[in-house]
């Protein structure tokens, strides 16, 4: 009755699954920055590295990703029948806007810190989308209490069976995985909540 | 000079607070509400996204339940330290797509958010939260394959604690065996200690 189906196998192969997701994205790098787990490294494609000219450019063009012949927003819209504006105003965190367009209009006037933040959000959504496409459940910005302060997990992943597998911290470029974050994640891991780090391509 | 309240702040003050008070939830923070029973605390928290802007607030609703006797049992047996024993987010399925974030930028979108949350919680959600605020109710919920916001190690630890409180020693044995099988390298030490303590206290 309490058999959890594929749960144990999924938990065992959790790091490999993350690596597979990253391989699907094509230009992400999973780095074993944290001592918490062993994660397979995926080498970024040469094209992805060559295309990096700034932080924004380091975000892969969704259209160039394998199997992505259409923007996810457009795909979602075609399913829901809603207009882009309705979708954007009500469900913005799931909306992946065209990074290139956004960069072109925003780069001149927006402070770099905000551009970096937006690129980080874009990258996080990209990783989350990969899990969703693979049939996994994702929850974003999940707060967890720790003795060192609150930790907001970027992405929390649930298996198709409904098992909560753990959290994913997404980092883009040289964004630091700080000591405080690592301490909180280490504590959460001891309490049964593992966190894996997925790092996007480094900047030039 | 008085700051103008945002649409979300106005909504919380004028609609959310009176509505939740009717159901026994008292404000515990600017955007959090708590219902306290003899043995449990149930939280409803409106969480703002880090992606919110000055024009648009992105908001989601976290539901958490913490049962004090379970907390005590876990602590006594050196089990995992958990802030809650059950957690979900309010979700709305629209056009075949589940969403847990709302964009609030004016009174109209604020009302859409409130109506969605009200539909999700009243009465089904409130009844579930009431059930979960008792040990037997929590045990029943965690015994089934339903999302609980807990990883396998956490869920089985909480379940074993609950089962031992209600005196179901046969179920405790089964759950502890499953917990042993679910332990990961990061949790093996904690799980071993917890198992040993649970077995020792069952013998006493």
Structure description:
The complex is a heterodimer of chains A (204) and B (204). Chain A has helices at 7-12, 14-25, 46-50, 72-80, 84-90, 99-106, 112-133, 179-190, and strands spanning 137-144, 151-158, 164-171, 195-199. With 204 residues, chain A is of the alpha+beta class. Chain A has a four-stranded mixed β-sheet with strand order 1-2-3-4, sandwiched between helices. In chain A, helix 8 links the parallel strand 3 and strand 4. The longest helix of chain A is centred in the middle third of the chain and has 22 residues, at 112-133. Chain A starts with 6 loop residues before the first helix and ends in a 5-residue tail after the last strand. Mean pLDDT of chain A is 62; it is low at 1-5 and 26-106. Chain B is α+β, with helices and mostly antiparallel strands and 204 residues long. Chain B has one domain. Chain B contains seven helices and eight strands. In chain B, strands 1, 2, 3, 4, 5 and 8 form a six-stranded antiparallel β-sheet that branches. Chain B has a two-stranded antiparallel ribbon with strand order 6-7. In chain B, a hairpin with a 2-residue loop joins strand 6 and strand 7 (97-99). In chain B, helix 2 (68-76) packs across helix 5. The longest helix of chain B is centred in the middle third of the chain and has 26 residues, at 107-132. The chains are: A alpha+beta (204), B alpha+beta (204). At the A-B interface, helix 1, helix 4, helix 5, strand 1 and strand 3 of A face strand 4, helix 5 and helix 6 of B.
What structural keywords apply?
heterodimer, A: 204 residues, alpha+beta, 40% helix, B: 204 residues, six-stranded antiparallel β-sheet, two-stranded antiparallel sheet, 7 helices, elongated
């Amino acid at each position: 009755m309490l058999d959890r189906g594929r749960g144990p196998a999924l938990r065992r192969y959790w790091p490999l699954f993350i690596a597979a997701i990253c391989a699907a994205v094509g230009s992400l790098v999973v780095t074993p920055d944290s001592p918490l787990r062993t994660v397979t490294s995926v080498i970024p494609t040469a094209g992805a590295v060559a295309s990096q000219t700034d932080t924004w450019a380091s975000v892969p063009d969704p259209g160039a990703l394998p199997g992505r012949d259409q923007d996810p927003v457009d795909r979602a819209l075609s399913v829901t029948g809603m207009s882009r504006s309705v979708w954007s105003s009500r469900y913005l965190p799931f909306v992946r806007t065209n990074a290139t367009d956004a960069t072109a209009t925003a780069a001149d006037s927006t402070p770099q810190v905000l551009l970096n933040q937006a690129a980080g959000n874009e990258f996080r959504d990209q990783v989350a989308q990969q899990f969703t496409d693979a049939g996994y459940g994702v929850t974003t910005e999940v707060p967890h209490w720790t003795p060192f302060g609150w930790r907001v997990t970027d992405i929390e992943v649930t298996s198709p069976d409904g098992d909560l597998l753990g959290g994913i911290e997404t980092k883009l470029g040289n964004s630091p995985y700080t000591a405080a974050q690592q301490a909180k994640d280490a504590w959460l891991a001891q309490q049964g909540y593992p966190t894996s780090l997925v790092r996007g391509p480094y900047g030039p | 000079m008085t700051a103008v309240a945002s649409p979300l702040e106005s909504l919380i003050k004028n609609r959310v607070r009176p509505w939740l008070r009717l159901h026994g939830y008292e404000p515990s923070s600017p955007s959090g509400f708590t219902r306290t029973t003899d043995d449990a605390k149930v939280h409803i928290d409106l969480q703002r996204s880090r992606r919110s802007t000055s024009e648009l607030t992105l908001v989601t609703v976290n539901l958490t339940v913490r049962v004090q006797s379970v907390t005590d049992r876990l602590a006594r047996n050196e089990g995992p330290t958990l802030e809650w024993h059950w957690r979900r987010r309010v979700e709305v399925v629209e056009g075949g797509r589940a969403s847990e974030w709302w964009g609030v930028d004016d009174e109209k979108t604020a009302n859409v958010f409130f109506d969605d949350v009200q539909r999700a919680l009243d009465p089904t959600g409130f009844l579930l939260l009431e059930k979960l605020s008792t040990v037997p109710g929590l045990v029943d919920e965690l015994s089934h394959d339903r999302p609980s916001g807990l990883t396998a190690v956490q869920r089985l630890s909480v379940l074993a604690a609950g089962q031992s409180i209600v005196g179901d020693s046969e179920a405790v044995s089964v759950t502890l065996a499953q917990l042993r099988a679910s332990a990961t390298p990061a949790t093996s030490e904690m799980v071993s200690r917890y198992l040993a303590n649970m077995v020792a206290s069952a013998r006493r």
